[in-house]
């Protein structure tokens, strides 16, 4: 660490020493595996150490010792789902113990997921077996979540994304667009806006998008004089803008991330539907996504990190030529690339017209993945498919937790208890509920490390509140779902945040200033959306 408190370039990249010939315009120097890995220190390290014991204590206290009145008064006869008929057969006492077990498992898992005391996928495995052993749900229900339609859509989306990466289509498109339209600083920022939006349609994993784009914008940052050992506002903007766009771009599509798919599944299930329509999400979410990205560009480049005249022009002569060389190394478009584009265009068209033909997103992705993998016809082999199974296991645990919450009706019971405790009556105006739920959802993104967990916690609560006050389920749950992707304030808020922080182009205070400002603006925008677009689409009657 240098005397100024900043990491020097050699600390960011071990290959860079005084005697090395480090080429700042070589994209290979910015591959993810070469970036410095951040070690947990201070408060984060203490959280990691104490998380395990604290989760065990939390479980034991809730399950064995703490008396929670509202859990004792839940009548199993209120349950209507066939999957939980057994609670009625077992009687009130068994149902009460299942509620205590569910709350204990839920609280303990939250502690482990927040502190990351153990890997997230391992926490999920603990959740699954704990729910079986405590009788919250059956083995059949718990283990079946790995075969949930949304799980299949996640897996198949990774197959399709791997197709684009393996054939270099994603990289070719990003390089071509920057070279073609990145004539100056302003156009470079607009180029990445378009690139992030397009990749959000194709690639559901935000980390994968960050991995593809990072080497490209790191070289561009160097061209404009931004280096890890010499930060400037162009570098701060190019990295933080991409972080914001990677996340918010995903919010425009239900297929943009697994957390969106989970939220859509929860909402659809509560309404008795098989799946949440791609069109329905897109029409309401995509315009908001574009507006927020443009506001983010203006706030970053014009207000928080305004660039000096010298930062708006290339500092390295002929720098863009290096990107052109990288693009030329890809050679001419191959047949496999044309096939990849054709497959994904067809998939996208079928997703976008789901209301017309009635085929679910999962079934469409299934067909696309099968064609992509077909020997002789397809474009990718199974060994080239990059499926992060640890994330799949994590998601399976989250869905199992969701199944348990639904089986015990715990979210609705907690909502009732909280409303009684704080004196919230049936006369509470809709706008108060809307403001409260959206506020908690968006700003929880500063504390939680998982979009999936936030979706699992707050979407069912919004559904429960809507049902309690006899409002349409979509009126509260959909606005909450649209805020899932706001995870960009601090490095530990999401995997892209952690990855891009290692570039050392900005400090944590830089990230907080920009990210928190955008969170406030985004909350204001979801209020405007509730009074306008969501009202016009029939989801709300307006806020005021």
The share of residues in extended strands comes to under 5%
What kind of assembly state do the chains in view correspond to? single chain
Provide the low-confidence segments as ranges.
1-20
Global structural class: mainly alpha
Number of helices: 26
The averaged pLDDT comes out at 82
User: Ends: how far apart?
Assistant: 54 Å
What's the shape?
globular
Q: Based on DSSP secondary structure assignment, what is the total number of beta strands?
A: 0
Q: Largest sheet, if any?
A: none
Helicity range: 55-70%
* Rg, Å, rounded: 24 Å
Summarize the structure in short.
This protein is mainly alpha-helical and 544 residues long. The protein has helices spanning 9-12, 42-65, 69-72, 85-90, 92-115, 120-133, 139-144, 149-166, 169-181, 185-202, 206-223, 233-250, 258-270, 278-304, 319-328, 335-352, 354-357, 361-373, 389-408, 410-421, 430-443, 451-468, 473-481, 495-501, 508-531, 533-536.
Protein topology:
Layout lengths: L8 H4 L29 H24 L3 H4 L12 H6 L1 H24 L4 H14 L5 H6 L4 H18 L2 H13 L3 H18 L3 H18 L9 H18 L7 H13 L7 H27 L14 H10 L6 H18 L1 H4 L3 H13 L15 H20 L1 H12 L8 H14 L7 H18 L4 H9 L13 H7 L6 H24 L1 H4 L8
Helix pairs in contact: 2-5, 5-6, 5-19, 6-19, 8-13, 8-18, 9-10, 9-15, 10-12, 11-12, 11-24, 12-14, 13-22, 13-23, 14-25, 16-18, 19-22, 20-22, 21-22, 21-23, 21-25, 22-23
Can you describe this structure?
- The chain is built from 26 helices and no strands.
- It is mainly α.
- Among the domains are: 38-145, no CATH class; 151-384, no CATH class.
- Helix 11 packs parallel to helix 24 and helix 13 runs parallel beside helix 22.
- The radius of gyration is 24 Å and the shape is globular.
- The chain starts with 8 loop residues before the first helix and ends in an 8-residue tail after the last helix.
């Amino acid at each position: 660490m240098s005397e100024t408190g900043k990491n020097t370039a050699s600390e960011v990249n071990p290959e860079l020493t005084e005697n090395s010939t480090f080429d700042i315009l070589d994209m290979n120097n910015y591959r993810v595996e070469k970036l410095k890995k951040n070690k947990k220190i201070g408060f984060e390290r203490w959280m990691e150490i104490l998380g395990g014991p604290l989760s065990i204590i939390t479980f034991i206290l809730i399950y064995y010792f703490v008396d929670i009145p509202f859990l004792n008064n839940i009548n199993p006869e209120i349950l209507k789902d066939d999957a939980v008929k057994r609670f009625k057969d077992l009687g009130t006492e068994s149902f009460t113990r299942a509620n205590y077990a569910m709350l204990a498992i839920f609280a303990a898992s939250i502690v482990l997921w927040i502190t990351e005391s153990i890997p997230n996928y391992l926490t999920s495995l603990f959740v699954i077996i704990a729910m079986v052993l405590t009788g919250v749900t059956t083995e059949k229900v718990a283990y079946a979540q790995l075969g949930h339609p949304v799980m299949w859509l996640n897996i198949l989306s990774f197959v399709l994304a791997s197709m684009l990466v393996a054939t270099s289509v994603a990289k070719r498109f990003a390089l071509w667009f920057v070279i073609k339209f990145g004539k100056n600083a302003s156009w470079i920022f607009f180029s990445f806006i378009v690139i992030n939006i397009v990749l959000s349609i194709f690639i559901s994993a935000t980390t994968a998008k960050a991995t593809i784009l990072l080497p490209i914008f790191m070289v561009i940052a160097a061209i404009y004089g931004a280096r890890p050992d010499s930060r400037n506002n162009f570098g701060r903007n190019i990295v933080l803008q991409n972080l914001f766009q990677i996340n918010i771009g995903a919010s425009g599509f239900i297929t943009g991330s697994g957390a969106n798919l989970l939220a859509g599944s929860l909402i659809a299930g509560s309404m008795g539907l098989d799946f949440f329509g791609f069109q329905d999400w897109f029409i309401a979410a995509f315009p908001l996504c574009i507006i927020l990205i443009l506001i983010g560009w203006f706030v970053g480049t014009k207000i928080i990190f305004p660039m000096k005249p010298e930062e708006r022009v290339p500092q390295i002569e002929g720098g863009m030529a290096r990107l052109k060389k990288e693009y030329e190394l890809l050679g001419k478009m191959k047949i496999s690339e044309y096939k990849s584009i054709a497959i994904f265009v067809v998939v996208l068209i079928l997703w976008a017209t789901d209301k017309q033909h009635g085929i679910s997103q999962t079934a469409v992705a299934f067909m696309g993945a099968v064609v992509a993998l077909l020997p002789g016809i397809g474009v990718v082999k199974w060994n080239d498919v990059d499926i992060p199974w640890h994330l799949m296991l994590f998601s399976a645990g989250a869905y199992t937790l969701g199944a348990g919450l639904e089986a015990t009706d715990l979210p609705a019971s907690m909502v009732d208890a909280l409303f009684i405790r704080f004196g919230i009556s049936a006369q509470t105006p809709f706008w108060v509920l809307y403001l409260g739920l959206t506020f908690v959802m968006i700003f929880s993104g500063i504390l939680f490390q998982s979009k999936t967990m936030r979706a699992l916690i707050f979407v069912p609560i919004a559904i429960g509140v809507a049902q309690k006050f006899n409002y349409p389920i979509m009126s509260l749950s959909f606005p909450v779902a649209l805020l899932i992707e706001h995870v960009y304030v601090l490095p530990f808020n999401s995997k892209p945040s952690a990855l891009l922080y290692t570039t050392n182009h900005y400090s944590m205070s830089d990230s907080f200033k920009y990210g928190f400002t955008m969170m406030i603006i985004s909350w204001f925008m979801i209020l405007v959306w509730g009074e306008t677009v969501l009202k016009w689409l029939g989801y709300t009657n307006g806020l005021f």
